[in-house]
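Board notes (copied after class):
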Amino acid sequence: MDKIALLLDLAHLVKKYGPTVFSDLAGVLRDPEAVAELVSILEVAEVSGRKACVTDSRRATNRVKGGKLSVPKIISEIEKNDPAKAQVLSDFHGTLAAKRALPTLRELRSFVLDNGFKEVETRSRNRAIGQLLRDMAAHPLEDIRSMLGRIRMEDTAGDRSLEGWTNVILDKGRPRSE
């Protein structure tokens, strides 16, 4: 796969710079001293790229930390073969993102364990959501629907929303004892 990508990149470069640049480069590469110089330049670039923590942007596209596909990419891949499953996962992702389902990392971890998924080790709820959806994607649609049927959904973001905290601070909606 990388060889095909390299050939495509070379074709773009030929279009960008023209064929004579490539024949000139071939002439330079025939000189062993020029090749040795080019090799040392490439090695220095690789070392400096690692020290600067530069990632391979081609491989990082649609991926998250750890080299896994991002949730939107997973859903789009599933949609090709199973649009109904992709829709269910997409809707669930939106519900999770809005914190209408499993609003805390603790609840999300509990759901993961209750359904036999790999334990969540991250401290980030967003990363845990990604892991959960990647794990769920491997299951049949009926199993996913069954799992989702056991989740309590919130109509709002709950007491942790800005409106909820405003009401607490302003003491609104509480019965007064006079």
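Comment from the instructor: The chain has two domains: 2-54, 63-160. The CA atoms of residues 62 and 68 lie 8 Å apart.
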